[in-house]
Amino acid sequence: xxxxxxxSPPSISAAAKPPLSPPPTPILKQKLQRTGAPKxxxxxxxxxxxxxxxxxPTGQTFRWKQTGPVQYSGSIGPHLVSLRQRPGDxxxxxxxxxxxxxxxxxxxxxxxxxxAEISLAELWSDFEMKDPRFGEVARHLRGARVLRxxxxxxxxxxxxxxxxxxxxxTKMVDFVSSLGLYLGEVEGFEFHQFPSLERLSRVSEDELxxxxxxxxxxxxxxxTVSALQSKPGGGDEWLLSLRKLDLQDAIAALCTLxxxxxxxxxxxxxxxxxxHSAIPVDTHVxxxxxxxxxxxxxxxxxxxxxxxxVAEAFxxxxxxxxxxxxxxxxxxxxxxxxxxxxxxxxxxxxxxAEKKK
Length: 357
Description:
Layout: H1 26-31, E1 33-34, E2 40-46, E3 65-68, E4 71-76, E5 79-84, E6 91-99, H2 103-113, H3 120-130, H4 132-140, H5 151-161, H6 166-177, E7 182-186, E8 189-192, H7 197-200, H8 205-210, H9 215-229, H10 235-241, H11 247-254, H12 262-272, H13 283-292, H14 304-318, H15 322-331, H16 335-356
Antiparallel strand pairs: 1-6, 2-6, 3-4, 4-5, 5-6, 7-8
């Protein structure tokens, strides 16, 4: 699933604009602090703990843009950040382009977003003991991390992603993002802080349809925003509270929102709610499962009941961080990574043959 470089955030026709007030205002822009000339600093993660092309363009988030050969840029709250990796440099570097708080707060927010407290080396070692095949894949695809996104941001993105293609998902997410506070530009891409729930509540269903969301998706997004606003304590706090629930309770709670089914709920749970054993099951994951975990189900039609069986099989094999294992195995099936694996395996076969001579 190759991620194309999307166009700039779509504009709204003059006829559709009146219901919305302009997202950025001069007053809000003055509150942002420019950090001066770009300054790259080492991040506390090596490339074995974070490999950018195995983390960002893999379907976890649709808001980060590729802004260099191995460089990705995006916003984390009020911070506009770029991450990059250079050949021969073992560490990952970051650049803070703009922030509404301090550089230290921005770095902490970035590390939190990257789930930096979780050691991939320890996880991969544990998974390899449980499944030798995982070790073979992980050897060539090190550094594929699961992100810890803001729950509202993640929820809206995956409402856009359901039954959709990458180009259209990106266009929708760019439109929603453009409603937030403007943070700046990196390599021709404009970046915004994700809009607040209150800001989203001022977007009408009709306006979303005119922006290309379609009837059902526009209805789901406005309905979900309305449902969140009605939650005691506020929708943001309600979403954050799901981090403290058991996985099944968190999934059930998410599925009460318009347009959220089990697969979308599992994506939100895994990528924003600390539910590390969540398994989003789609046709790709189904194929992986029937090849390696539940071969007796090969040829069967994927149903809601079988989705649960697949999730159980992953958790049984890999344990409480099964979602991380599933993420790597999913990434290994993407065309670019599949080619890399096949190339690596061919090299190994040649080396083995040469040793036997």
